[in-house]
Design brief:
Layout: H1 6-16, H2 22-30, H3 35-47, H4 51-62, H5 70-89, H6 93-106, H7 117-130, H8 134-150, H9 155-171, H10 175-188, E1 191-192, H11 194-205, H12 209-219, E2 220-221
Antiparallel strand pairs: 1-2
Helix pairs in contact: 3-4, 4-5, 5-6, 6-7, 7-8, 7-9, 8-9, 9-10, 9-12, 10-12, 11-12
């Protein structure tokens, strides 16, 4: 990823400082040198619709060099994942995958992360799927599932892998297996949209399995 000049970052932070109230302005000021604070500012900008400014700050973190400070380097890995999400939304799966591999490679060096390396691997599987490598995506998801089970991972993490494995299998035209895995995801998920579940059940009753799987996929809630 192309580096962002420090002068560009400093000028941007000066520009956006008035956008923050006094209580939060110190975070913007800290973002000049602290990557964790910069990531927080980038996330706030993206959530408020300031896509260009938020993305530029994310890029500046993702393209920065390792610091040897675990908190700073954790922010680098998180920023690469956030950038990957944005690129995947734009269907730039190859660019997203490159960032995710970088994040995965550095994962073991940073203990202060709240997610598992297998969660990065699942995003990589989604990128492979997005590039048309369906069988590889299925195989990767199966490997991730096996690893998470060996780690006694929580139900939410398992649900997400089952959900995407089912989605990949649908496009592999393995509908029976896709239904089995999607229903397992629904069983493990922390929440379900009952309206979407009912839509899926109605579609399945009419033998419209693709529509049923789409409804079940959308029914799964993680927040």
């Amino acid at each position: 990823m192309e580096r962002v000049a420090d002068q560009t970052v400093q000028e941007l932070l000066s520009t956006i400082l008035p956008w923050f109230d006094r209580e939060h302005a110190f975070i913007c000021d800290s973002a000049r040198t602290d990557l964790g604070a910069r990531l927080a500012v980038a996330s706030a900008l993206l959530e408020s619709g300031k896509q260009q400014e938020g993305t530029l700050l994310l890029k500046s973190i993702a393209a920065s060099d390792p610091t040897g400070d675990s908190e700073q380097d954790a922010a680098r890995i998180r920023s690469r994942m956030e950038m990957a999400y944005l690129l995947m939304d734009e269907m730039k799966y190859d660019e997203a995958e490159n960032l995710l591999w970088e994040a995965r490679k550095e994962y073991a060096q940073v203990p202060e992360l709240e997610f598992l390396r297998e969660e990065i691997s699942l995003l990589i599987a989604q990128c492979r799927f997005g590039q048309g490598f369906i069988l590889e995506a299925v195989e990767r998801a199966e490997e991730i599932l096996h690893k998470l089970n060996s780690l006694n991972a929580d139900n939410t993490r398992l649900a997400k892998v089952y959900q995407y494995l089912a989605w990949f299998e649908l496009h592999k035209t393995d509908v029976p297996q896709a239904l089995t895995h999607m229903k397992k995801a629904m069983e493990l998920a922390p929440g379900l949209d009952r309206e979407m579940v009912d839509a899926g059940l109605a579609a399945e009753k009419n033998n419209d399995y693709e529509k049923a799987l789409e409804a079940y996929f959308d029914a799964i809630q993680y927040e």
